[in-house]
Amino acid sequence: MQMKSFALGIALVVGVWFVALVPLAEAAPCLMVTLTGTQGGPSVFKGQAGAGTLVRYGDDSNDCGTTKLQFDTGRGTNMRLSQIDVSPVSLNAIFFTHMHGDHTEGFADIMMLRWYLKGPKIDIVCSSDAASALGFTNSCRKYVTHIGDAFLQSGEIAERRSEDKARLAGGPADLANVITFDPKDEPQAVWSSGDVKVSAIRSTHTAGHASYRVDTPAGSVVIGGDAANDKLAPPRASSTSEQVERLAQGVDIIVHSTIHPVLAPDQTSGFPPASFYRQSLATDLGAMAKRVGAKYLMLTHLAPSLGAVVHNRWKVPGGPLKEADYRKAVEAGGFTGTTIVGTDLATLRLPVK
Asked: Scanning 21, 163, 165, 306, which has its CA 20 to 30 A from the CA of 289?
């Protein structure tokens, strides 16, 4: 329910004082999307944080800060959040696209500090246990449940509780309210709070991979994660996910990991074809963004990173890439909206000031 503010109005009419409530101008709703980490893959380069996106919604009176949602928590997420004055205690929910370490390594840091500061429980939203065709199971639920085990075994939880018994005995895992869902080929609602609605869809990268959409009165954003096409090798019409495209119809902003054609198998990097084909090409993302009518495309999890001579352990043919190289690839797909080539803490606000 939208709340209205009123001021007290007093007037003297024909010798009689009248008191009335006069509506004040309401603060305009706003949405902010911040890339908390843009490193592509497990490696590290020039201090970049691991993959993650912070979505904030509110209004002008609170700098879009009523609701704070973190999507993926790569290494260094807490450090990046601290640079924009967002405490882990203030997060309303955390969402995982998949269980790769470059998207999850910062989770323990966030939860441990939230526990230390005696923050409230938090919703952790992710897909249900997913069996891989390779014979193992990806389990977000188990990952979250055991996130504090190392701190319990080391004795730190016990020591910190000796200082303050109000801290939960089970450590950071006791703060997690795990919400799982079975990803489907059509969007489904997975979380909501007030005017903020989050939906998810199945997408291909690893077993259980999911992509998300956040809808608010100020705008909408899709977080694709590392999604790629169900067909994991050419010939195929596109490297992008058909499910993500379905989720993104009419969206304002698309945040998506990307790989540049320079790492393709027909180039000289030696980058593994199987890894190349399970990412979305920048050119194909541009084409998808155009088809769904998106206004903004935020590229993240860049492969290769801007300025990198080597991506993970493969040499970048022709030397380091610049922002212009990624923009050119996107534009080749026909996208004429705004492209943001991701760097840590790059932020987009709707409406734009």
From this structure: 306
What residues contact residue 236 under an 8 Å CB cut-off, 6+ apart?
229
Which tokens is 301 given? 């999890």
- The owner of tokens 């606000």 is 349
Confidence at residue 12, expressed as pLDDT on a 0 to 100 scale: 46
- Is-contact 316 40, C-beta < 8 A? no
Rg value, the chain, Cα: 22
Residue type, 205: H
d(CA 106, CA 328): 32
Determine the Cα–Cα distance for residues 344 and 102; give it in Å rounded to an integer: 14
Using omega within 30 degrees of 0 as the cis cutoff, is the peptide bond preceding 172 cis?
no
Question: Residue type at 310?
Answer: V
Cβ neighbours of 307 (radius 10 Å): 13
What residue ranges in the chain does DSSP mark as E strands? 6-13, 16-23, 29-37, 52-59, 67-71, 93-95, 122-127, 130-131, 137-138, 176-181, 188-193, 196-202, 210-216, 219-223, 253-259, 296-303, 310-311, 314-315, 338-341, 347-350
Q: Is the pLDDT of residue 222 over 60?
A: yes
CA distances (Å), 48 to each of 40, 55, 69, 306, in order? 9, 19, 21, 11
At residue 250, does pLDDT exceed 80? yes
d(CA 176, CA 349): 29
Q: Tell me the pLDDT tens digit for each residue of 17-56.
A: 444 554 556 789 999 999 999 999 999 999 999 999 999 9
- The string of DSSP codes covering 64-77 is T-SEEEEE---TTH
Q: Taking a C-beta distance cutoff of 8 angstroms, is the pair 200, 210 a contact?
A: yes
- What b/e readout covers 221-254, taking b as 16+ CB neighbours within 10 angstroms? bbbbbbbbbeeeeeeeebbbbbbbbebbeebbbb
Which of 123-157 are b and which e, b meaning 16 or more Cβ less than 10 Å from the residue's Cβ? bbbbbeebeeeeeeebbbbebbeebbeebbeeeeb
Q: Residue 14: CB partners within 8 Å, gap ≥ 6?
A: none
